[in-house]
Amino acid sequence: MLALIALLGTVLTLSSAFRPVAEGGYQVGDKVADFKLKNVDGKTVSLADNATAKGYIVVFTCNTCPYAQAYEDRIMALHQKYAAQGYPVVAINPNDPQVAPGDSYASMQQRAKTKRYAFPYLLDESQEVAHAYGATRTPHVYVLQRTGADFKVAYIGAIDNNTEDAKAATQHYVDDALAQLMSGKAVQTTSTKAIGCTIKWKKKA
Question: How confident is the model over 117-131, as a mean pLDDT?
Fold first, then answer.
């Protein structure tokens, strides 16, 4: 029994060493810091680039996660629906390609081209942005609203309540949050649990 306990302790120690989890991060109402990340077209993108944006739908996502793939068309639809209304999608891949080779920059470029993304697909190479936001899953959504020159978090969590079938979803969290923001109302559901694959963090040296 003691040997088993010791073995479990070793496993937990190794697990925590190789799976760092972003703790804390932005909460609803917090002002976010701007970032500068490389897009799949090679250009650098920041929140400040779009002076007309009323906010953003920031989605931490990737190529390889089945949940991210299941939500991909819904992410594209959100951009198509809301970009013209001032809330474009900004997709960010936080995964370490050393851990998930299918999430390399070249693979991101191919995915964006194949799916014809109309929004930026950015590489968070250092993972600093994911840590700052407190993202833990792919997909993990943050709806931002402009307040003066700043952007503040209005909603955090999932896109809807069905990870497999958009038509079967009965609650549309991001849609509802945006509809409320654009009508000048307070967001009723400000946070939900993000369901998806864990972010593939860099291994600690």
Answer: 98
Q: What does the DSSP assignment read for 112-170?
A: HHHHT-SS-EEE-TT-HHHHHHT--EESEEEEEEEETTEEEEEEEE-SSS-SS-GGG-S
The count of domains in the chain is 1
Six-digit token pair at 104? 């390399």
Can you say how many angstroms the Cα of residue 157 is from the centroid of all Cα atoms in its chain? 9
Per residue in 55-99, pLDDT (tens digit) is 999 999 999 999 999 999 999 999 999 999 999 999 999 999 999
DSSP 102: G
Strand partners, 156: 142, 191
Tell me which amino acid residue 123 is. L
What are 82's two structure tokens?
Answer: 């809301």
Q: What is the CATH number of the domain that holds 88?
A: 3.40.30.10
Q: Give the per-residue pLDDT at 205.
A: 65
Q: Is residue 69 part of a domain?
A: yes
